[in-house]
Amino acid sequence: xxxxxxxxxxxxxxxxxxxxxxxxxxxxxxxxxxxxxxxxxxxxxxxxxxxxxxxxxxxxxxxxxxxxxxxxxxxxxxxxxxxxxxxxxxxxxxxxxxxxxxxxxxxxxxxxxxxxxxxxxxxxxxxxxxxxxxxxxxxxxxxxxxxxxxxxxxxxxxxxxxxxxxxxxxxxxxxxxx
Length: 178
Description:
Keywords: Membrane, Transmembrane, Transmembrane helix. It is a single chain. The chain has five helices and no strands. By secondary structure, it is an all-alpha fold. The chain has one domain. Helix 1 runs antiparallel to helix 4 and helix 2 runs antiparallel to helix 3. The longest helix has 36 residues. It starts with 6 loop residues before the first helix and ends in a 7-residue tail after the last helix.
């Protein structure tokens, strides 16, 4: 085959994948807590600080962790028996990761910036735009955590079997190359 990973290399990639995924979940959970604090506090300073911290986590933790999880997942899927499009669970995790990466960067990142700007003055933002932004941020965080948990379940349960491509690969006769 020649394409596979050696045992030590596979273990290193797997550690990178699991560690970055666990970190991603931890950051997503922390962001949800910060968004709840920003929504429920009466302190303007704490509200603003919670939004700033959320935005900082997004830029400097979330995005790098998602990129490491994506890259290590791609290496593991492409260089092991699982394949990227051979099993539905692997394909589903790949698609979910891409969707979350884009949604987090474009929408949640933008809403976090809006929340920071709205709370920079120190008062309690009462306008409907800020309230909508906070609702979007909270909803986005819940969706994030749910999707990451779905990916964990997919990794453990490995449901749905092989894709049509995966079934074709199994049926393909092995030929001796000489």
